Model the fold of this input.
Amino acid sequence: MADAVLFIGWGTVVPGREQTSLQVFSEGVAYWQRLQEQGEIESFEAVTLEPHGGELLGFVVMRGEREKLNQVRYSEEFLRLNARAGLVVQNLGVVAGFSGEALNRQFTSFQEQASELT
Done:
């Protein structure tokens, strides 16, 4: 069961690159689907946000095992796709995260450290 996530967030489209951004996003969806079909990730969800005054306009959350997500994150294809995305959107970011049992371990560790330091 997945206990790790890989979060890819982006902001506004670079002016003049609207059509290209749609092409790159389609490439991303095809890539994430292929990763899921091959068992490299457990699942993914792509989300766009309504206007809210912030910089984040959309994101993808990939779920899987930490080791497999790390392999994906530093693969040539992932890096190439993110380089392409970085040319068509602003504020592109990739962040690892915790879910499931790994999230519970993070909170337990935080509680232990907070108790020790207070």
User: Anything to note?
Assistant: The first helix runs from residue 18 to 37. Residues 4-117 form a domain with the Alpha-Beta Plaits fold (CATH 3.30.70.100). DSSP finds four helices and four strands in the chain.
